[in-house]
Design goal:
It is a single chain. By secondary structure, the protein is an all-alpha fold. It has helices spanning about 1-20, 25-60, 65-100, 105-120, 120-135, 140-165, 175-200, 210-245, 250-265, 265-285, 290-325, 330-340, 345-360, 365-385, 385-390, 395-415.
Length: about 425
């Protein structure tokens, strides 16, 4: 999963690198899209988490027919949801980003990019849910291979689509969105083959409407709070982006670059949050609660130890890392400040996401949502927004660091106290 998540986030870094060569307006536009893309992607992650949770527990309980029915109905629900969200996004793209603070030429660039991105949503959601189903069956290699392959295609097409190549015209920022669409279409085909031909996780039988509703209810019991849990953080980033927009487009661009580098640094923790799901879910489904607790404990220890390494790297190398994406001295300075302040507290963020993922897997997604709300809604947004009162962007960065540290400490204390004795 480290390789798979690394591949996915490398696409974001490649987009930032190529778009950054077009200018500050283009980089600021991409920064505005980042939290919205993350928010909607989080809906897919929530559906994937819900599908993975119910399927992994069904596998742990050795219910083969129920497993196939749940897997198939999960994909059908994903298609229904994506159709609704795609239509709403295409209709509301301009007013949405105007509300977030994008103006003038930056807003026009954002709209051009997001129209392509919304059109390609089905190619994002279905492979993500399919990958969750395959991981629930105990195989994280196949989804990771698909993720790596799609990333290689995406990064390979980025330069050609953004700057043009041969008969292909330069598409600018929208070219990055077209490159992602093509790569995700390839991922959809590959993931479909694994699900149908190799894993044999899907059922060809037409279900009764009552059975499908029952499957959807079980999935949504986990999927809705899991989606909310994954959407909370990017929504919080959207709010903070709007706050930072009051300091100018250089600050927004710096925040966009820094948060991408931060996501890249968090890859092992993000991978851990994906890997803990099938382990926690299958063992919980088989009443092996001690194993679930042991997995959580090991994950927390790793996150805290890893954050020490990340803090050292960002303290020593923040400026050269940012300079790889921008040569604007204002952008470089503010992004480097963010990384040095926030980098030391990423372990708290890791504790939050792994605890939330484990709770999703065992069917306690509402409590998992509580963990993320504690960090993002209760602490992150209020503490970062205090920068407006002071008039200095670095106060927002300090607020984000404090949110990571305080919420991580509280979740370490709550995680084992909130666990049920066994599955219901």
């Amino acid at each position: 999963m480290v390789l798979g998540v690394l591949a996915v986030l490398s696409v974001s870094l490649a987009d930032t690198y190529f778009v950054g060569q077009l200018g500050t307006d283009e980089l600021a536009a991409l920064s505005f899209t980042f939290p919205v893309v993350l928010t909607i992607s989080s809906l897919s992650i929530g559906l994937s988490a819900g599908a993975s949770s119910i399927v992994s527990r069904s596998i742990g309980g050795n219910h083969t027919d129920d497993t196939r029915r749940l897997a198939t109905d999960s994909l059908v629900l994903a298609l229904v949801v994506v159709a609704v969200v795609c239509a709403a996004g295409l209709f509301a793209v301009r007013p949405l980003f105007s509300l977030l603070g994008a103006q003038g030429r930056v807003l026009d660039i954002v709209v051009e990019y997001m129209r392509v991105w919304f059109f390609g949503m089905p190619f994002l959601v279905v492979p993500m849910v399919g990958g969750g189903l395959i991981r629930a069956n105990g195989d994280s290699i196949a989804p990771s291979l698909v993720m790596v392959g799609a990333a290689v295609i995406n990064v390979g097409l980025d330069r050609a689509f953004v700057f043009g190549a041969g008969p292909l015209p330069a598409l600018g920022v929208a070219g990055a969105a077209w490159a992602s669409l093509v790569a995700r279409a390839c991922a959809l085909l590959a993931m479909g083959w694994f699900l149908i031909a190799r894993e044999k996780l899907l059922s060809s039988a037409i279900p009764r409407w009552a059975d499908m509703k029952h499957s959807w209810a079980r999935l949504l019991k986990v999927g809705v709070p899991a989606a909310g849990s994954n959407m909370v953080n990017p929504i919080a980033i959207s709010v903070v982006t709007a706050v930072l927009a009051t300091f100018g487009k250089d600050t927004v661009a710096a925040f966009g670059v820094a948060t991408r580098l931060e996501s890249f640094a968090a890859i092992p923790m993000l991978a851990l949050s994906s890997a803990i799901g099938p382990i926690a879910g299958q063992n919980w489904g088989d009443d092996e609660t001690a194993r679930t607790k042991g997995a959580m404990r090991a994950a927390f220890i790793f996150c805290l130890g890893y954050s020490v390494l990340i803090a050292a790297v960002f303290w020593l190398a923040a400026r050269p890392l940012v300079e790889f994406f921008s040569d604007d001295p204002e952008v470089v300075g503010e992004a480097a400040t963010y990384l040095r302040i926030v980098g030391a507290t990423l372990g708290g963020y890791g504790v939050i996401i792994t605890a939330s993922a484990a709770y999703n897997a065992i069917g306690e997604a509402v409590r998992g949502l509580g963990f993320t709300l504690l960090r993002s809604a209760v602490l992150y947004v209020p503490l970062a927004s205090a920068s407006v009162l002071v008039g200095t962007a670095w106060v927002a960065f300090g607020g984000i660091a404090a949110a990571n540290a305080l919420s991580g400490a509280l979740v370490l204390w709550l995680a084992f106290r909130w666990l049920p004795a066994s599955q219901a």
